[in-house]
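Collaborator request, handled under Task 6.
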Amino acid sequence: MAWLVLVFSGVLETVWAAALGASKGFSKLWPSVLFGVALLLSMSGLAYSLRAIPIGAGYAVWVGIGAVGTALYGILALNDPMTFGRIACLLLIVAGVVGLKLLH
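Structure tokens returned to the collaborator:
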């Protein structure tokens, strides 16, 4: 259960990162509200997960999911450049996250 909550919390990290950008420095109400709610839920899920998962693996998986998710959101929704190098680096992050989970 802890791993499932951790993955969901990592996805919420992508949500709050995207909402933070959309809030334009907290000048837009609804993206700012979404940021706050997603941040609170994401951190709460991380805290819950770390009761059963070692902090090194848990935090790295959480950050990895958030980083890859945010980068993909930028590529797919915001027209950030999609280059071979960027995709290769994202795949390396995914490989590291999977490795941490498997070696836990």
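The cover message to the collaborator said: "DSSP finds four helices and no strands in the chain. Residues 2-102 form one domain. Please let us know whether this matches your experimental observations."
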